[in-house]
Amino acid sequence: RLHATDITSSSFLLMWPKLLSQETGYYTLEYAPTADLARKRTQQVSGAHTSLLLSDLAPETTYEVALIPESNVHYFPPQTTRVTTLAEEISPVQVLISESGPHSFHVSWAPVLDSVLSYQVLYGPLPGNSVKVLEVDGRHNSTVVEHLAPNTTYLVTVTAIYRSGKEKSLSAKACTQEGERG
């Protein structure tokens, strides 16, 4: 049976049983969005293949896929399947800094997405290039950054690391309060 695996927002891997060999023919692969079959694309694949990666697809779209074995030995009926791509991965759209003190501040971000495995919070003083990293579980949307210098501006970057391996980032600036004057 023709089926899809490794589905993302813009690609999927098609797999099928070995029906042909290099010598006995080739496959014609046709695929199109269900909603717009006129936009059909066609690809030819050697008979030695049993998989093909389709990419440059639209997110959240159902595709009709037909694999037609073109054999010079046997007749094989076309194999068909439907595959729906995932929703587009969106980056964190806001990073909020709150509860700022001389040595710490609270960082939160939105939205929280199921497709995120974890977040990385990078922070370092401006100007400067000493950056520290906090790893935050993908289910959480906030963390506290501690052990900071007072009266300092920090650049904070939240990077969402998606299950697909993609990463998207958003930055914000944060200022710590002045320390207690002794």
Automatic annotation (TrEMBL):
<keyword id="KW-0325">Glycoprotein</keyword>
<keyword id="KW-0732">Signal</keyword>
<keyword id="KW-0677">Repeat</keyword>
<feature type="domain" description="Fibronectin type-III">
    <location>
        <begin position="91"/>
        <end position="179"/>
    </location>
</feature>
<protein>
    <submittedName>
        <fullName>VWA1 protein</fullName>
    </submittedName>
</protein>
<dbReference type="InterPro" id="IPR036116">
    <property type="entry name" value="FN3_sf"/>
</dbReference>
<dbReference type="InterPro" id="IPR013783">
    <property type="entry name" value="Ig-like_fold"/>
</dbReference>
<dbReference type="InterPro" id="IPR003961">
    <property type="entry name" value="FN3_dom"/>
</dbReference>
<dbReference type="InterPro" id="IPR050991">
    <property type="entry name" value="ECM_Regulatory_Proteins"/>
</dbReference>
<dbReference type="GO" id="GO:0005576">
    <property type="term" value="C:extracellular region"/>
</dbReference>
<keyword id="KW-0964">Secreted</keyword>
<dbReference type="Pfam" id="PF00041">
    <property type="entry name" value="fn3"/>
</dbReference>
<feature type="domain" description="Fibronectin type-III">
    <location>
        <begin position="1"/>
        <end position="89"/>
    </location>
</feature>
